[in-house]
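User: If you would, consider this record:
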Amino acid sequence: MRAWPGCVVACAAVGLTAAAVAAPQALPPEAVRALQSAGVPAEALSVVVLDAAGRRLLQWNETKPVNPASLMKLVTTAAALERLGPAWNWSTPVWLTGPVNQGVLEGSLVIKGSGDPRLVPERLWLMLRRVQQLGVREIRGDIVLDSSAFAVPEVSPADFDGEPLRPYNVRPAALLFNFRAVTYTFVPDAAAGVARVLAEPALAGTLVDTTVPLAAGPCDDWRAALKPSFETGRTRFAGAFPLACGETAWPVADPQPATYEARLIEALWREMGGALHGRAREGLAPADARPAFELRSPALAEVVRDINKFSNNVMAQQLFLTLAREAQPGRPATPDAARELLLRWLAERSGPLADDVLLDNGSGLSRSTRLSAQRLAAVLLYMLDSPWMSELMSSLPISGVDGTMRRSRTPPGRAHLKTGSLKDVSGVAGYALSGGGRRYVVVAIVNHPQAGAARPALDALVRWALRDAPAHRVSSEP
């Protein structure tokens, strides 16, 4: 009989009773062979496998602090589901700061962000459509954008890996439209000898080449072949697009992130037939007036699903900061406040913190984050008895079916596992259901320069658990 979340939680994080620890034995042979094939030493692997009662069936390097990469999202989303609830949502209030006379707003339109990560063009269209339904066709003033709910230090999007145009490097913001990215779609027109270039969404003041010549040959490094130039106010493609690639989409983080929201909202308002006499700009919302309406986000459970299924770093960091904002209403959320809150939650749910934990931004897109396999397994085991277990589990990629696990060689549908990948890091963590109907918690992380090649070893460990994790328990430190 389990006693979560009391003593057993702490035991899962900081040690087990002598009766629970079996004699040391080797890793499963199939995992060892896969590691050897990848050129990865066993010392680079950390593993914990638990059954649903919390008994350890396999542990290896379990207390070692390792970089978990995107497995960190499991902690952030589990904490959010428990603290906020799966039906919770973000609210984006909108003000009309003046009277509306014959379709003219004699003032400004004000939009205040609260961290909603799903303010994509379709939902922004609904927001502006609501403004038009209130009778506004022309704005005499400005469109004012308030991002004061977050206080995030200014850093370069190139800081992490020198790739500022990668969408995963977009920085969080209280008012974040469409992940501050543009998707360029190349549609070959063989008869005309060109590929049509479609840019979505359109941004005010930004011109994009509408065609690029087609080229023969294989579809290899087609991005480099395009010879792109993402300049202020202009996107050019000086090269050619291989016909063999077919229709292809390329999402790119906008090179002017600070003005992205202003350019997008202005372009969308005008596209909808609205007139704007002023400009879209940053500013503060009224402190003493009720908003005209509020745009509500999808439920948190739906957002958590996007975060975990597709390992969305930007959405995870938005949620990370939102936890701090909700804990301290009226104060701008900071990364320091979010880290403090998440560390406190982690200690409450997995036992006293030690040197196996170092948190950064809540998404795992970090070189400094550290988390032991034992700590992460304790969180997953705690959530197995949580009221929100179903919401967390259903947010995880399904082996061989969807998300980042769709190409896994783990038996299809038998495991719900979050993946984690960075340079020198590869990992999986989540839940596996054996053919015998037994549920297991599985955490396996490799930190090594050849970590990417060790993915078959991670699959082998999951398959080992799915065979009802052989009757003998395994416990070892290399």
In short: The chain has a mean pLDDT of 92. The radius of gyration is 25 Å. Residues 7-87+300-476 form a domain with the Beta-lactamase fold (CATH 3.40.710.10).
